[in-house]
Amino acid sequence: MALALGIPCVSTKWVTHSCDQGYALDWEKYLIGPGPSVFLGAVPALVNLQLPILHRPAHHLRAVFDAREPLLILRDKSVVYVSSKAKPKSDWNETVKPILCASGATRLGFVETKG
């Protein structure tokens, strides 16, 4: 979810290596990339949404959220999610809805189709 929000995420190795050195190492070297999308059949992500976040003078929480502004591709849009899966409502609540909200959608709807 943090990647969808454009928040920089680091590997746990950053913590381990920093502890080994006795001080916080440069975390940008340990950034986790967007990786392949399971939902798109393991197609690799073409855009790293963290890039606008990284090129800022400060990494304060307010600055992180301000830098997300250009990433809100669904700003003020309405989205209807239609599914015929066996457990579509759980997919909607756990995965789809949070990502749509993180992308700026303001009106969301869910429709389950029968067979």
From TrEMBL:
Q: Which PANTHER family match?
A: TP53-BINDING PROTEIN 1, TUMOR SUPPRESSOR P53-BINDING PROTEIN 1
Superkingdom in the source lineage? Eukaryota
Taken from the UniProt entry, a GO cellular component term is: nucleus
Annotated InterPro entries: BRCT_dom (IPR001357), BRCT_dom_sf (IPR036420), TP53BP1-like (IPR047252)
Biological source species: Puccinia triticina (isolate 1-1 / race 1 (BBBD)) (Brown leaf rust fungus)
**Annotated Gene Ontology MF terms?**
histone binding
What is the designated name of this protein? BRCT domain-containing protein
Q: Tell me which Gene3D superfamilies the record gives.
A: BRCT domain
